[in-house]
Each structure stands twice: as C-alpha cells, then as structure tokens.
Amino acid sequence: MLKFKLKEVKSGPILHYPECLAAGWGMLSAAVTIGDARATRQPDPPPPRRRQCSLQACRVQFDEEFLETKEQLQKLQDGEHLLFQQVPMVEIDGMKLVQTRSILHYIAEKHQLFGKDLKERTLIDMYVEGTLDLLEMLIMHPFLKPEDQPKEVVHMAQKAIIRYFPVFEKVLRGHGQNFLVGNQLSLADVILLQTILALEEKIPNILSTFPFLQEYTVKLSNIPTIKRFLEPGSKKKPPPDDVYVRTVYNIFMS
Amino acid sequence: MSGKPVLHYFNIQGRMESIRWLLAAAGVEFEEKLIMCQEDLDKLKNDGLLMFHQVPMVEMDGMKMVQSRAILNYIATKYNLYGKDMKERLLIDMYTEGMADLFELSFKVILGPPEQRDATKSLIKDRAKNRFFPAFEKVLKSHGQGYLVGNKLSKADILLTELMYCVEEFDASLLTNFPLLQALKTRISNLPNVKKFLQPGSQRKPPMTEEKLEEARKVFKF
C-alpha cells in the first residue's frame, strides 16, 4: 500500500488528487495549463512517487500527490487538510485551496488570465461557466451505466453543436482575434480548448461545421507552453478508462 | 447605463434566489420579468437574449449576464462584497463553492426523481450537519469576528444566511449545535436591507412545494 506523505513545497503548488481521476477531472488539468511565462526554478531530483514538471502553459513548477487508496483520502481528512473533506486540493502560496472553481480563479488571477477589468472578467466568467456545464457531462460520462453511455455521447454532441459551439464561433468570427476575450489568453480559452480536445476524443469530427473554432483550436494548441503540455510525457492525463473508474469507486464509495 | 437591474426567471427560488438575496442585501432595487409560460421562455430564446438558451439572465449595466456564478461575482465586485484583495476573494470563493454544493442538492430534491427525494433530503441534512456547517462554524470560531472573511460583510455571509434558511426547511434543528452560525444568521437578518427582504411582500420567493412543482410540470412540460 502506498504510504501517503504530505509535504510543503516552497517553490510551487502541490496538487492532491487521484492520478486517474485527474484524467476525468479535466478541470484540474485545466488548472495546470494556465498561467503566464515565468522564470523556472531548477527542480530538485524527484523523490519516489512524486513527479515534478512544469505547469506547461505557465512554466510554474508543481508537484502532484496522487490519491490511490481510501486510506490516503482518510489521512488528508483526518489531518484537517481539506476544508470540506473533499479533493481536489492544491497547496499554493501557503494555503490549502479547495473547490475547483476557486482554484481555477485564483490561479487565473495570479497569472493574468482573468481579463483586464470587471467587464472582461465577467465575460470570461460567463464563457467558463457555460463551458464547464459541457465539460461536466464529459467528466460524469465514465460513471454512467455502460448501456447509457452511447446515448449520452449523442446528447453531449448535440449540446455542444446546438448550444455552446455556436456562441464561441460567433464571438471569434465577430472580432477576428485569436482569443475569446480581450485579445489575450484567458481562462476561458484554456477551459474551452480542453473541452474541445476532450470531446474530440469521443467525437472526432465535432468541429466540422465550425471553421473559426477549428482554426482557434490549432492556434491555441501551438502556443509553445500549451504545445508541450499536449505532447506525450507531459503532465496532461490520459482519457479515463476502467481502471480509473474502479479506483474512484474504491476510494470514494467502498 | 441607468435603470434598475432586470431579472429574468421563473416565479420560483431556483437558481435566481441567491442573486435576489445579494442584490437585496446590497440595497439595490431590481425589477423582475417573470417567466410564466413556455411562450415567455421561447421569446427570450428567439430574441437571442440568452447566451446559452438558459435562465437566470440579468440585464444590468448594458450587459445581459447569464450563469448564476458570473452574475453573483459581478454584483459582489460592484458592491464591495468580495473582499479587499485576492486572498480574501479566494476564501470567499471557497466558502461560496462549498455552499453551492449544498444548494445543488436542494435543486436535486425538486428536479430529481420523486422516489429519490427522501434520500436526497437525508443527504442534505447529513452534509449540512457533518460537513459544511462544522467547517463554517470553525472559520467563525478561528477569528472570532462577526463575518466570515476580513471582518466585513461579503457575498459569503449573505449566501450562507440564505443557505441556513433553506436547509432549515428540511430540518429546523440543524443549526442547534452551531451557535456562531446562528449568531451570524441573526446578525445578517437584522441588517436593514436584509430585514426588509425577509418581510412579506418582498421579492423573496417561497420554498417549492409538490403542488407548485406539478403545476410547473404542466405549464412547461418537463
């Protein structure tokens, strides 16, 4: 059994999460793609079971503590490290952040990914919240009964094509810029890119009627930091599989 | 842009109620265009007023805002209910998101399958009593101040008060072991703007009942 060790890393954030859950919980992987360009610190040699790598889009060093057993979660809870007894939890700047949206907002604000004023911020918020509704369907999908899963893929595709993609296609067509808000990378772009890529894993031609979104996806994916994150061997987690579903059940339901 | 905010939603608490609470607590007068039938909703959609074809939608300061969190954050920022810096904002966000988990469960009671209603209600009571209320009581105890964050009224205090009223509908005894939460609830309820909002005749909406839900199902066919 893996012995869980909680450590403070003064140089950067620590993400506490089940490794395979992070595959499904794209929100957390979104959190690790955002930020600004910053000088990196030379990483220490990685201790066993801890991996260090850059937060690709923002070149922020971070560690991950993967939860694989119920006992690990219990230890975090008993040690009062989790405000509401839940993960994700990110240790950053001397604090233990919980609640995915709070974590995303904090990181976005810290790394100038939340617009330049209140109106831009609100627009980013609206786009992010809408996209998260769609992403949440993807996250929940592996936990549906196998016989319900194909029908749900159709449902997600419909929502994407009828409700969400037209909004963003129109925005991009309207201003002709490479980013959704304020002509610079924001949390809205990161979450949308992540959602598009996750959907494409299930429905490869999902963007076929959205030329602006296609170009947008290519351009964002080629931003050097994001490009590195999308390459094999990066911190990005693979799509969920049966092992992942079983591990989640073992940790949270047994 | 002058003029009061205009709230577009059904004549229920639902996902608009927190926004009503926040505006009321901030002393902001607002109008409501209540959606009473399917045609009302269709018109909003067909006129292109709903970004993701959904309500709540709030017309305010030249924007047609959607997504309740985005709306709440805008109002909180505008009326100085969001802390004084990033760290305070973070705390307010974390606490509010925890509350949102409980609010989501309360929506599930209404919108979920009838046969699961009792189980969901039990879960709400359990989560409130064993997970969320203890966390907030501990926060208040840790600093001994009258508000959750920064010794100043914020979105977190207002929404927690709303939440306490909400879960008391399921079980009036839930706050028994949380004296500091009770004190917060009293303190917020006595703020002049909130006091007014809590009185009959205000824009506050009553809790959902089985009868109202059945009526709504017929009108909106869901």
UniProtKB/TrEMBL annotation, chain B:
Which InterPro entries does this chain map to? Answer: Glutathione-S-Trfase_C-like, Glutathione-S-Trfase_C_sf, Glutathione_S-Trfase, Glutathione_S-Trfase_N, GST_alpha, GST_C, GST_superfamily, Thioredoxin-like_sf
One of the GO biological process terms: glutathione metabolic process
Q: Does the keyword DNA-binding apply?
A: no
Q: Where would I find the GST C-terminal domain in this sequence?
A: 85-208
Gene Ontology, cellular component aspect? cytosol; extracellular exosome
According to the UniProt entry, its GO molecular function terms are: glutathione transferase activity
What PROSITE patterns would the database entry show?
GST_CTER (PS50405), GST_NTER (PS50404)
Q: What is its EC number?
A: 2.5.1.18
Q: Which family does it belong to?
A: Belongs to the GST superfamily. Alpha family.
A Pfam short name:
GST_C_3
Instruction: Give start and end of each GST N-terminal domain.
Output: 3-83
Q: Which SUPFAM superfamilies did the record assign?
A: GST C-terminal domain-like, Thioredoxin-like
Write out the entry's keywords from A to Z: Transferase
Q: What is the lineage of its organism?
A: Eukaryota, Metazoa, Chordata, Craniata, Vertebrata
**Protein name listed in UniProt:** glutathione transferase
Which reactions appear under catalytic activity for this entry? RX + glutathione = an S-substituted glutathione + a halide anion + H(+)
